[in-house]
Specification:
Elements (H helix, E strand, L loop, with lengths): L1 E4 L2 E3 L6 H10 L9 E9 L9 E3 L2 E4 L2 H9 L4 H8 L5 E10 L10 E8 L6 H15 L5 E9 L4 E8 L10 E9 L3 H14 L1
Antiparallel strand pairs: 1-5, 1-6, 2-4, 3-4, 3-5, 3-10, 6-8, 7-9, 7-10, 8-9
Protein name: DUF4865 family protein
Pfam families: DUF4865
InterPro entries: DUF4865
Length: 202
């Protein structure tokens, strides 16, 4: 599994309905994209849920790198972003674990939370990853959870925790909060099945 996100920060007076219309028109194009576990089409709006900015920030979980590459440079999808907004920096993390929550089949999620943190300098990452996996496991049974994942960028030793929620995320869950405009999830079952299989062999 691989996690990926790029963010497009928009002017303070930007009409976010432009992004809503864009996603309504194009979001379903990735509903059966090869190797895609899920793509959550995310926005933040200035002044809502504590956001200081208007932002379009889709988040991806990939089951394989062939599809990821095809999306970025194979003429499938990302070229439209580059043409309309310029080429954003694409952040990438190696997936560690993913889980389905109690609500994966109860309709599309409405909100998402993303939190990042760092593995302390000089520390063995094993302890940080074990704690992140335990946190994910504890979150899995939370009412309203659609799905969640944890991943690591070993270049910057950055951890990312990502979760999707059927409605409003728990108020005490830390992180940046997003609205979900659409979810393409052709490989969601494969993401969570791989995690369960890994857990059985650990």
């Amino acid at each position: 599994m691989h996690a990926m996100q790029y963010t497009i920060t928009l002017p303070a007076d930007y009409d976010m309905d432009v992004i809503r219309r864009r996603v309504a028109a194009k979001g379903s194009l990735l509903d059966d994209f090869p190797d895609l576990g899920l793509k959550a089409y995310l926005i933040r709006e200035r002044g809502r849920e504590g956001s200081p900015v208007n932002e379009y920030a889709p988040f991806y979980l990939w089951n394989g790198t062939a599809g990821l590459g095809r999306f970025l440079w194979g003429g499938s999808g990302f070229g439209g972003i580059v043409a309309d907004f310029g080429r954003p920096t694409v952040r990438h993390w190696i997936g560690a674990a993913a889980t389905a929550g109690p609500e994966p089949a109860g309709g599309p999620p409405r909100t998402a939370v993303r939190r990042t943190g760092t593995v302390p300098d000089g520390a063995d990452p094993a302890g940080s990853m074990a704690r992140a996996a335990a946190e994910l496991s504890a979150l899995a049974g939370t009412p309203g959870l659609h799905s969640a994942a944890v991943a690591l960028d070993p270049h910057h030793w950055e951890l990312v925790h990502f979760s999707l929620w059927a409605d409003t995320a728990p108020a005490d869950l830390p992180g940046d909060r997003y609205q979900v405009l659409h979810l393409s999830a052709p490989g969601l079952a494969e993401l969570t099945l791989a995690d369960r299989t890994a857990g059985a062999t650990r």
